[in-house]
Amino acid sequence: RTSSERGLSELKQILDNAGVSKRKYSQVGIAECLADSKVVCLCTEGIEYGPRALGHRSILSDARNPNMKTIMNEKIKHREGYRPFAPVVLAEHFHEYFISDSICHDYMLRAVDCVETARDVIPAVVHVDNSARVQTVTSKMGKVHGILESFFTLTGVPVLINTSFNDNDEPIVFDAIDAFCCFLRTEADILVIENDVYYRSDISDIETLLENVLAVQEDRIS
Q1: In DSSP terms, which residues pair with 161 in a beta bridge?
Q2: How far is Cα 22 from Cα 181, in angstroms, rounded to an integer?
Q3: What is the mean pLDDT of the chain?
């Protein structure tokens, strides 16, 4: 077996020994949690390639919450408070919130201006200069599209914060082991690994679990 396969087997054993339960994935359930200002980590459908998180190794949260930028910087990313967060938006709703000559912003590489009402509706992703480095999302992008659709149905807002699934000064997580390590080190609420969902509130001893999962990660690296 590869080191990754061995690591996943060890991870499953650690979670079983710790009595960590998993729940079945539901995009509606995840959207409801996001609408309740929960922070959700995604490790799903392949890996990320390039400088940005595009929905496969992402941390999602509610752009409507004016405090979410502070929450994400202090409790999740552990970085300076002025650092902005980027939005993801259903492509067909792009022009309701952003200004550009195109709705094709698939790779979150270009900053655009925000419409006048965006600061009131999605304040957590509007930078001080009224710009946002936006990503448009279509059905080809998998789970993140379904989550956005359900969030839109629930709230009437087709926009979420999307930041890379990593802590400050770390690379984007690669697999389930990295995902669990990062999830446990931050104060994120929910972790989605493919079709399995883990809630922080279901874990009784986070410090011991993190220690055990880190040992698997370090053994794999060495």
Answers
A1: 61, 87
A2: 16
A3: 91
Beta-carbon count within 10 A of 204 CB: 10
Nearest Cα neighbor of 163 from 73, 31, 80 is 73
- The owner of tokens 């087709």 is 158
Cβ neighbors of 9 (< 8 A, separation 6 or more) are 1
CA dihedral 27, 203, 175, 56 (to 10 degrees): 20
* pLDDT tens string 124-165: 999 999 999 999 999 998 999 999 999 999 999 999 999 999
7 falls in which pLDDT band (50, 70, 90)?
Answer: low
71: left (phi over 0), alpha (psi -120 to 50) or beta: alpha
pLDDT bin (cut points 50, 70, 90) of residue 109 is confident
Strands 190-193 vs 40-43: parallel, antiparallel or unpaired: parallel
Phi, psi of 54 (to 5 degrees): -125, 25
Tokens of 149: 């659709």
- Contact present, 216 and 105 (Cβ < 8 Å): no
> Per the confidence metrics, is the pTM higher than 0.90?
yes
Strand, helix or coil for residue 78: coil
In this prediction, residue 2 carries a pLDDT of: 47
Detail the DSSP E strand segments found in the chain.
23-24, 40-43, 57-61, 86-90, 98-99, 111-114, 131-133, 135-137, 159-164, 190-193, 196-199
